[in-house]
Amino acid sequence: MATLSDQEFHARMQALSDKFAATVPVTLDKITAALAACRADGPAGPSPDHLHVLHELLHGVAGSAGTFGYGTLGQYCRVVEQQLRAVLGGQAEWPVVAPQVDALLRWAARDPRAPSW
């Protein structure tokens, strides 16, 4: 039998999940804006500052999405975040990673709770 504390815990977790769900569209908009800023830097490639902002946004989603029922979104963000980290570290090229961010955003626009990408 569930105790009152179990019910309270589940209610708090549901409230946090609802709050996270409400932030997903805003966060995807921020990722879109960060991607646009990276692209606006021109043919020499994005500035480290713009790449860092994009990386931090992806990292934030990757770290918390699974807790709130967006497991695949979190995994997808983690994959792209790691690719972006390689760009920041000089082990990968931005033109290879930018389309991956586009694909992530297209997938998430359809259904960020989908079980697979």
UniProtKB/TrEMBL annotation:
Organism: Rugamonas brunnea
Pfam short name (any one): Hpt
Protein name per the record: Hpt domain-containing protein
A biological-process GO annotation: phosphorelay signal transduction system
Annotated InterPro entries: HPT_dom_sf, Sig_transdc_His_kin_Hpt_dom
GO molecular function terms listed in the Swiss-Prot or TrEMBL record: protein kinase activity
Residue ranges occupied by any HPt domain in the UniProt entry: 18-104
Keyword Glycosyltransferase: no
Keyword Lipid metabolism in record: no
Lineage top rank: taxon: Bacteria
Keywords noted in UniProt: Two-component regulatory system
